[in-house]
Specification:
Elements lengths: L6 H32 L14 H7 L9 H4 L21 H14 L12 H8 L3 H13 L3 E4 L3 E4 L38 H7 L8 H8 L21 H14 L14 H13 L9 E4 L1 H13 L5 E6 L4 H8 L3 E8 L2 E2 L1 H11 L3 E4 L13 H14 L2 E5 L17 H5 L4 E6 L11 E4 L2 H15 L4 H13 L2 H26 L12 E5 L4 H9 L6 E2 L12 E5 L6 H11 L3
Parallel strand pairs: 4-5, 4-7, 7-8, 8-9
Antiparallel strand pairs: 1-2, 3-10, 5-6, 9-10, 11-13, 12-13
Helix pairs in contact: 4-6, 5-6, 9-17, 11-12, 11-16, 13-14
Length: about 575
């Protein structure tokens, strides 16, 4: 007998059967999820759960060829996908589909903190994707604060504080949504000494050796000029392709970026990303506590302008980053140096000078101090915080080199901001040293009240910072590749530092201990390094004499050397000849 039922009825019956099968699969998955949630917390492996089966029916998507319904549901019919069906026809990349699915499970508390993720190989095999795709997805989840990587153990769901925002919310401009450029420069009076005709012949300005002289010559970019005293990494060390790709992506997504301003407090998705970065350093800061700046230079300038008045005293380490001495003096502040020792400031001297001068601010590098690459001990950190409260001054923690410190159990990093949680400490950092100097993106993290004041101060001085640079930095950070780039920088510096220290010992340059990380060595030449700097200019070499790193700018036998810029034989030949090494 011929079947006369309408074709639409047959289709409806098929759809109903398919929907029933999907509902059964979802019910089985929910039961597995319930069992997984009830499982013990320490380090469980993530259960196999389907995420996209229902979406496949609702959106009318075709199944991936070769996948059975049982496999897609992750049921007993085979080793199915652990986190649901990936849609090859979707406009969303496979990487972002994985990230979105895992992030949703974590946000919904279906994956608990401490849960161990499937291995890269297992995840790739169960989903029919490459290991590269899984690595890229896991890296993005680490970058956005959902996962953490444990060396030798794999990837785990990160314990996240309740305050953490949903970075995967496109409406909030998070990790999967649409994804400033000039710094302030200070001036300082210098000590005597001239480069003379030899400096002019070598391409250097014939002016007194002072802070302005050094900075100006660092930017002259003369052919064949070697700069062992430089404060930056060689451009070829930085991840130019990642920055270029991010810039192209940002330009494609919003071609009109150049036509409008950003917002005074900074690009919100970047501030959300920085919240995750700070959480890794055990510093709790909501996005509204973060203000973006045109590098740390502008951050210091904004803080000084907002919290000091002419005649106030600002403490700095001695030695310290020289550019701020003249910048603060130009504001009418009195700059006083606190002797810096191997484990932090001289506490007795800090207490004595605090009682005498009643400072408003103390600027300090807790981690990888410039120029010595030493770090603050925990004991010193607590004493600094105690004196800050006793004498009522704010601490400004400049952490520009944070990504060059491994932060491991072998080399723990003590940050005042983590101990104080931004009560009396204002935290500064940025990406000019490790990502791209010309982006000029830095930030301030502080209490909500101070963040609001600093955002207003920024608005009154520069309106906003460039939205383009902030979007590019956000794109690079959220892609998850920056973490590996920082690992490569640290490894490269470690190798060169060991080689440089051996060479220094051979020619008679002395260092108090061996810095375990960072790019700088604070070397003792045993002679006036201003004179040595003058002689170096005739050989097209730029040194950084120790006098520039002290507010007093008195002659010094010290000089800052950058291990990444010490690889040319001409540098060592000059130093060996001048210092009489063996």
């Amino acid at each position: 007998m011929t079947n006369t039922r309408p074709r639409t009825s047959l289709l409806g019956a098929a759809a109903a059967a398919a929907a029933e099968a999907v509902n059964e699969a979802l019910a089985a998955a929910q039961a597995r999820e319930a069992r997984a949630i009830a499982a013990p917390a320490p380090g469980p492996a993530v259960a196999s759960v389907p995420l996209a089966a229902k979406q496949t029916v609702e959106r009318g998507r075709a199944r991936v060829p070769g996948r059975t319904p049982a496999a897609e549901a992750g049921g007993a019919g085979g080793a199915g996908p652990m986190f649901g069906l990936l849609l090859r026809e979707s406009g969303e990349t496979l990487i972002d589909q994985i990230v979105r699915s895992v992030a949703a499970r974590i946000d919904d508390r279906l994956l608990r903190g401490g849960a161990r993720m499937p291995s890269i190989r297992a995840f790739a095999a169960s989903h029919g994707v490459s290991a590269f795709t899984v690595v890229a997805a896991y890296d993005k989840l680490v970058a956005t604060g959902y996962l953490e990587s444990r060396r030798g153990a794999g990837f785990f769901v990160r314990e996240r504080p309740a305050m953490a925002l949903n970075a995967a919310d496109p409406a909030a401009g998070g990790a999967f949504g649409v994804h400033g450029l000039h710094g302030a420069a200070g001036m300082a009076g210098g000590l005597g000494g001239t480069g003379g005709a030899r400096a002019a012949l070598a391409g250097f300005e014939s002016k007194p050796i002072d802070v302005v002289w050094l900075v100006r010559n660092m930017f002259r970019q003369m052919p064949h000029q070697q700069m062992p005293g430089s404060g930056v990494l060689p451009p070829e060390w930085l991840d130019g392709p990642a920055v270029a790709n991010a810039l192209r992506a940002v330009s494609r997504q919003n071609p009109t970026l150049l036509l409008s301003y950003g917002v005074p407090q900074g690009f919100l998705p970047l501030r959300q990303q920085l919240q995750h970065k700070l959480a890794e350093l055990e510093i709790a800061a909501a996005p509204e506590q973060i203000v973006t700046t045109a590098g740390v230079t502008q951050a210091l300038d904004l803080v000084a302008r907002e919290f000091t008045r002419p005649g106030d005293t600002i403490f700095v380490d001695d030695p310290a980053w020289f550019l701020m001495f003249g910048s603060f003096a130009a504001l009418g502040a009195k700059v006083v140096g606190i002797p810096r020792l191997a484990d932090g400031p001289d506490i007795a001297r800090l207490a004595e000078l605090a009682a005498l001068h009643k400072p408003k601010l103390y600027i300090i590098n807790s981690v990888l101090h410039n120029p010595s690459s030493t770090s603050l001990s925990a004991a010193k950190a607590f004493q600094v915080l105690r004196l800050s409260e006793e004498h009522d001054f704010l601490i400004v923690e400049d952490d520009i080199y944070c990504d060059l410190h491994p932060g491991s159990a072998v080399q723990p990093a003590t940050r005042l901001s983590a101990l104080d949680q931004l009560q009396r400490v204002i935290y500064l950092s940025g990406f000019s040293k490790t990502m791209a100097a010309n982006l000029r993106v830095g930030f301030i993290a502080t209490s909500p009240e101070r963040a609001e004041r600093l955002a207003d101060r920024k608005m009154l001085s520069t309106l906003t910072t460039s939205d383009i640079g902030e979007r590019v930095v956000y794109k690079v950070l959220s892609e998850g590749t920056y973490r590996k780039h920082a690992d490569r920088l640290r490894a490269r510096l470690d190798g060169l530092r060991a080689k440089t220290l051996r060479q220094m010992e051979r020619i008679g340059l002395k260092v108090d201990g061996s810095p375990p990380a960072g790019m700088f060595v604070w070397a003792d030449a045993g002679c006036d390094t201003n004179v040595l700097t003058e002689r170096a200019m005739a050989h097209n070499l730029l040194l950084a004499p120790g006098s520039l790193f002290s507010p007093k700018q008195l002659p010094s036998t010290r000089m800052r050397l950058n291990v990444a810029a010490m690889q040319e034989p001409a540098i060592w030949r000059f130093l060996e000849r001048e210092l009489g090494g063996s």
